[in-house]
Amino acid sequence: MLELTDIEAGYGRTRVLHGVTVPSGKVVAVLGHNGAGKTTLLRLAIGLIKPSRGRVLFDGEDITSLAPNQRVARGMAYVPQGQQAFGQLTTLENLQLVADGRRGGRALIDAQMARFPALEQFATRKAGLLSGGQRQQLAIARALITEPKLLILDEPTEGIQPTIVAEIEQTIMQLAAEDINVLLVEQHIGFALEAADRYVVLASGHVSHTGEGGKAATSTVRAAMAI
User: Chain centroid to CA 23: how far?
Assistant: First the structure.
């Protein structure tokens, strides 16, 4: 679905990514220490920054030069790091902002509330009063209302209680079963490898290791990251 080939990119004169290639996969996890270039890679995938070299392919099309809105129109959705929501709006209002104007908008909202029961329970609560995990579920639900082919997630489990971490992991695996691809940046190695069928380890903007996901890859990834 998404393939990044020989990517060079950064900010101004600062080069962050150096010849990075990310293979296509149903769920691809991007791992690495802070400062490795993971978030830059996701920003490039959605079109917020452009590569100085390399290609971005999505569903067989070269989208390297396309703007973020054009990529969204083709079926990409991006959930940045930080459990973002409109805090003064209710849970339901946050979802309605995305669903309004879409065919079957109410059904799309209902589907995400069924996926994340806490959102239905707190539909009338202001998003700013939700827990961090509930806000993360809300952010993912908003992205899924756009009915993407690819969901890009940046650190979805950061600062979240373990019970909701497990729910988000289950959601990612369910999305793969629903034929929605996922590009995932994650610090928790066990979580990421359990959910992913492919992984890439970044170190100082270079790919240091890549392989198939699953629990069996944990020791290999920990060795690659020297942890």
Answer: 15
C-alpha–C-alpha distance, residues 210 and 206, integer Å: 11
pTM across the whole model: 0.93
CA distance 85 to 83: 7
Contacts of 113 (CB under 8 A, 6+ apart): 95, 119, 120, 123, 141
Distances (CA, A) of 221 to 62, 110, 190: 30, 38, 10
pLDDT digits 0-9 by tens, 134-154: 999 999 999 999 999 999 999
CATH number at residue 43: 3.40.50.300
Find where tokens 């396309």 sit. 66
Q: What is the pLDDT of residue 85?
A: 87
**C-alpha 203 chain-centroid distance:** 19
Range of the domain at 188: 2-225
Total domains, the chain = 1
**Burial of 221 (C-beta count, 10 Å sphere; 0-12/13-18/19+):** buried
In terms of residues, how long is the chain?
Answer: 227
- Parts of the chain with a pLDDT under 70: 83
Which helix (H) or strand (E) segment is 222 a member of? helix 218-225
